[in-house]
Structure formats: structure tokens, C-alpha cells
Design brief:
This protein is about 45% helix and about 15% strand. The chain has about 200 residues and is of the alpha/beta class. The protein is globular. Belongs to the RuvC family.
């Protein structure tokens, strides 16, 4: 499986492509960082990121896409830029019919290092070891993208299969009996086994 993973950001956007299957050796295909100038207008920066993403998708033809999930932050402008780039990645994937999975930073750290509290240095060390690299990937955005790709190879495939199975499974009928409300005007069938009370005499 070939995974294209993106650590979204408007100033620095890490992109990594990894080949592999769960339980087998992982192979680095390419890693890099898309950069834009903070002084440029946001629309121009988004177009620059979009153009670069197009080349990544066309060059590597991934089978799945992984994106780091955006979290709220005190820096609103950073969150906005990250969310906007996330949207661009999703559009590219959707146009090609590729499944998209969002992974949290904690999930990625746990998958790569065994601890959801691992720091960037520990994650980079494990990425270098798992991919058999001679030198650690730099900058940190590049290492984060590769960690995200590794996480998806190991976990994302299972998550997607579970989601597909859940969507394809027929809905189970409820075992809870339906309660039919009684109506004051309802007519019940006569039960011959039930004793009948004598009618009150008429005056």
C-alpha cells in the first residue's frame, strides 16, 4: 500500500510518501516540505500549496491519504491556515477517489514510538530506524509526515476496513417490542374463554 501523508500547515506543509504493509518492511518513497511566504496574501499561498500537492499526487499515485487532525490552538491564524490546507488535501484525494483518514498527534506518536507522549526527537529517531534511513529526516515537518504515513500503514488500513464493513452491514432489526398505544375507542375481539359480566338491568 502506498500512503501519501500530510502534516498540514500554510507556512510549512510536510509531505511524505511511504510504501508498506502491516508487519512488513516499510520503504521511503519521497519526503519534503511545501513552503510559502508569510508576507504573501493567503489566497496566493493556498494556490502555491495546491499546485505542489497536485504534483505530489500525480507523481506518486497513492492508494490512501493520511492527514494529521487539526486541533484548536490559541493562535487562530495558525489553526485557520492548517484547516485550509487540510481542505485542499481532502479535495485532491476525493477527486481521485482515494480514502482519507485523519490521525491525531497522540495516535501517531503511540504507533511509531509506543508512547503517545513521545517528543519530536523520539519520533524522529523511530522514523529513521523504521524506514532504514542513514540520516534523520529534516525539518520536523518532514519527520512528522513520515510518522503519519507509518501510522496509517499500520493502523489506517484496519480502520478503513472496519468502517467499510460497518457501512455495508445490513441494519439489525430492533428486538425491543413496539408498544401499541391503547385508544379509548379501540374495539377488541371477543374472547370466548373470558367470562362475561352480567349486564346491569335496565330500568
Amino acid at each position: 500500500m502506498r500512503v501519501l501523508a500530510v502534516d498540514p500547515g500554510l507556512t510549512r506543509c510536510g509531505v511524505g510518501v511511504v510504501d508498506g504493509l502491516p508487519g512488513r518492511r516499510l520503504t521511503l518513497v519521497e519526503v519534503g516540505v511545501i513552503r510559502t511566504l508569510p508576507a504573501d496574501p493567503t489566497p496566493r499561498r493556498l494556490v502555491a500549496v495546491d499546485d505542489e500537492l497536485h504534483h505530489w499526487f500525480e507523481r506518486h499515485r497513492p492508494e490512501a491519504v493520511a492527514i494529521e487532525r487539526v486541533f484548536a490552538d490559541t493562535n487562530v491564524s495558525t489553526v485557520m491556515g492548517t484547516a485550509q490546507v487540510t481542505g485542499l488535501v481532502m479535495v485532491h484525494a476525493e477527486r481521485r477517489g482515494l480514502p482519507v483518514t485523519l490521525h491525531t498527534p497522540t495516535e501517531v506518536k503511540a504507533a511509531v514510538s509506543g508512547s503517545g507522549r513521545a517528543d519530536k526527537a523520539q519520533v524522529t529517531t523511530m522514523v529513521t530506524r523504521l524506514l532504514g534511513l542513514t540520516t534523520p529526516p529534516k525539518p520536523a515537518d518532514a519527520a512528522d509526515a513520515l510518522a503519519l504515513a507509518i501510522c496509517h500503514v499500520w493502523r489506517g488500513g484496519t480502520q478503513n476496513r472496519l468502517a467499510e464493513a460497518a457501512a455495508a452491514a445490513p441494519a439489525r432489526p430492533s428486538r425491543i417490542p413496539k408498544r401499541v398505544p391503547r385508544s379509548s375507542t379501540a374495539v377488541t375481539a371477543h374472547d370466548p374463554t373470558r367470562p362475561t359480566l352480567p349486564k346491569a338491568p335496565t330500568r
